[in-house]
Design a protein that fits this description.
The protein is of the alpha/beta class and 165 residues long. 44% of the residues lie in helices and 16% in strands. It has one domain: Oxidized Rhodanese, domain 1. It contains seven helices and nine strands; from the N terminus they run H-E-H-E-H-E-H-E-H-E-H-E-E-E-H-E. The longest helix is centred in the first third of the chain and has 28 residues.
């Protein structure tokens, strides 16, 4: 019984430490200019409300896997003009994501400057989505365990997927 209690406490502390570390990482790189949405909240919204999910990663990352309903808009290829054609209503609920939520904040800021008023940034990005056990799909729409890990440095945050570089 003592061992089970120790394991539970250890796992809780490890989870809290990992969460705190992700919090610190995002506080270091993000300004908070785009409000976060948790993976759990996005999952709930996907089921109940129309929401546009935009993948702000590079094409090679998107081609490995993505959140099923996500549309590719890229990071280096991002264009406000293309988004205006894709999403003409400026109050459309939009969630942006990347690997961890850093690049997506930049794109979220650009969307806000373009007049979009209902933007959320997926906290922890596709890594946290996959770590939470939610599905991703490949280019053909088939469920996959593969996720592009961006780099070996950032890949340490992806815990429950097959890392592709």
């Amino acid at each position: 019984m003592k061992n089970i209690l120790f394991i539970c406490v250890f796992l809780s502390m490890a989870s809290a430490t990992a969460q705190e570390s992700l919090d610190n990482l995002l506080k270091t790189f993000n300004s908070g200019s785009v409000s976060y949405i948790s993976v759990q909240e996005l999952r709930r919204l996907q089921v109940n409300e129309p929401i546009v999910i935009l993948d702000t990663r590079e094409k090679e990352e998107f081609d490995v896997s993505r959140i099923a309903s996500a549309r590719y808009i890229g990071y280096s290829e991002f264009s406000s003009e293309n988004i205006s054609k894709m999403i003409p209503k400026k109050d459309t609920p939009i969630v942006v994501y990347c690997s961890l939520g850093i690049r997506s904040e930049t794109i979220g800021e650009k969307l806000q400057k373009a007049g979009y008023t209902n933007i959320k940034n997926l906290y922890g990005g596709i890594f946290t989505w996959k770590n939470a056990g939610y599905q991703v799909v490949d280019a053909e729409g088939n469920q996959t365990e593969k996720v592009h890990a961006y780099s070996k440095i950032w890949g340490k945050w992806l815990l429950k997927a097959e890392k592709i570089y």
